[in-house]
Amino acid sequence: MNITIIGAGPIGCYAGYFLAKAGHTVTIYENHAQVGCPIQCTGILTSDFDQFQLPMESYLVNTIDTIEVYSPQENVAITQKDYIVCRTKFDNFFATMARDAGATILVNHSFTRKEGNELIIKDTINNTEIKITPDIVIAADGPLSPTAKAYGFFHPKRENYFGIQAVVEGKFEPHTIKTYFGNIVCPGLFAWVVPESATRARVGLATLRNTKKYFDTFMKEHNFTSLEIQAGAIPVYNSKQQLHKDNCYVIGDASGYVKATTLGGLVPALRQAKLVAECILKDKKIEAEIAPVRKQMKLHLKVHDIFNRFTDADWDRLVRYVKQPKIQHVFEQYTRDNPLPLLIKTLLKEPRFLYFSKYLFS
Q: What is the pTM of this model?
């Protein structure tokens, strides 16, 4: 088969790797001049990334063992293992995997439009257009995916957060992520301080609106001065999002496969990319194969909807419950990627968490 992938991020390249390895002709088009640039992601991986059994030496920046959570009046430290990666090196790792398997990656090539069965790709260096007619198209071109739009994938109620992040210098606990919750700090989500080292960190937040106002306030309150700024849209998962239509599959941020609770998407999207490739190779239906991942995404969305209704007093109450040793022990056993066992175990040990279920019906 002749397979076209739009977007040379890690998700598109991972799918391309499996398809090229199986002997198919794979061409990956990237609209930027360099794979992995510009950076629009904090680069946090939970330890669930271990399932892919991929070497990390070339892109690992730091390893985290603690997450500190701050509500307006409370705080708690939770033991969790995370990896901090350089997204440019991370993306290029997957691009190299795809190339080594036989895929072709063309940078400075942008999807322009769809005309019947043909895709129009623009060579932005030579300012020329080429027409292609692939057997399979994979849209992996980000949250605003023009490819997904051209195929009619976007749900009318699709929403995007807008995130802003700065690289800053200072004194940091090198293996501790700090997160800040509350409607004054970051309504609907949280602000973060993610250390690259003891002297350098990634600081940011994301909201549905007025992001810059909240970001500027957070930076000022913590006396941070940015060395560089990164920004971008982050999709909110929509359970009605289709993944396959005609000869096109949509994956990664283009499909909205992002955890609604944290806006992290690398681990679930890599699982999704592998499943899409397997479905293409074995002629399986993606909707059936993706069901376990979709179940996790739906649960994240439900928790996100509850958090969206929280008052600052609710955040304080939540942190007080989590501070109990019996609850912290549960958090030490499970990652953020799969919230179901985490929710079940915490409810069994602390029934007062049911207090927040009132927001399920409000």
A: 0.94
